[in-house]
Specification:
Elements (H helix, E strand, L loop, with lengths): L3 E2 L3 E9 L3 E8 L4 E8 L4 H12 L12 E5 L2 E7 L6 H8 L4 H20 L2 E2 L8 E3 L9 E3 L6 E2 L20 H4 L6 H17 L17 H12 L11 H6 L42 H7 L9 H27 L1
Antiparallel strand pairs: 1-2, 2-3, 3-4, 4-6, 5-6, 7-10, 8-9
Bound molecules: adenosine-5'-triphosphate and magnesium ion (MG).
Length: 334
Amino acid sequence: MGEVFAGRYELLDQVASGGMGTIWRVLDRADGGLKAAKILSQSDAGSLLRFVREQSVRIDHTHVVTPLSWAGVDDRVLFTMPLVRGGSVADLLKEHGPLPPRWVALLTDQLLQALEAVHAAGIVHRDVKPGNLLLEPTGTGAPHLRLTDFGIAAPVDQPRMTRGTQAIGTPGYMPPEQWRGADPDPSADLYAVGRVALEMLLGRRPVDDEPVPEPLGASTTDRLLGLVRDATRPDPADRPASATAMRARLADLVVLPPTPDERVVTVPDRFPTAAPPPPPYRPLAPTAPHPASATLAFRPPPPVPAALPSAVPGLVLVLVGLLGLALATWLLLG
Ligand SMILES: Nc1ncnc2c1ncn2[C@@H]1O[C@H](COP(=O)(O)OP(=O)(O)OP(=O)(O)O)[C@@H](O)[C@H]1O
Ligand SMILES: [Mg+2]
């Protein structure tokens, strides 16, 4: 049995280790449910502040991972969240390379739906990247994305608590103004969406400042490249006005049926439920017959000697003969 944290969360296995802590699969003894838990690796004031903020971002939306509960023991803290079983978009890209354009449109649209809810709550995520986009295990069906990791999210209109030496994003996905320390603004998340969409089309992380390929026609890929170019403009004022405005440009792409030549993409269940244990050993019930007596009970009766049937008429003949002899003797002598 694994360590039981705070008398409630049984640590089953480590799922990943990130910049802020480690992610575990846990059994919550309070309700018997399997969950994910992020255990903070450090307990300095800055990390604890991030932890408190992250676990408090509770946006109830189908494309957002919402923390469920938290616990602390001595100087260790964890918070739990639903276990999302299909891995991340980073895993998917590692396994499949470039994704079909229809998938890129679907995943980008779902990410934008998540950001609509996040921005409506007055929060900027600031760390949109493939490793923070989890997937439900939908197999070969349509994907279901869930945005996670609100570790450096910031309220739009409140003083930031992560200024200074702390990281404020991930290189490659941060817009130029975020590097310069600009105040949190939803347009920074839209820039990151553009970078992620480009990565999904290329099947690899674009190098910094890599120019976005020129859209040449009106195919799904071209339409996506046009959106990527607009979302990643250096000046935030040149980007689409909102997540909703970006979604409008995807509206007719997300309803497209798969083309016959579309590659099959699978999002597997990375935590398949273990096979049920074999039933416990049970000795034979006391009333069951002992194997030896059972054999005896069903032993066939001993074979009747083959000679017996033929001996019976012979014996009768001998008796009849003896009787006849006795009668003849009695008549002759008598
Ligand atoms: N709820 C969850 N269910 C399943 N796996 C998860 C869950 N949350 C996180 N993970 C896994 O753990 C990885 C890291 O999670 P997360 O980004 O929240 O941690 P982090 O410490 O902030 O990492 P980083 O600094 O790399 O962003 C994810 O990419 C994913 O593989
Ligand atoms: Mg992360």
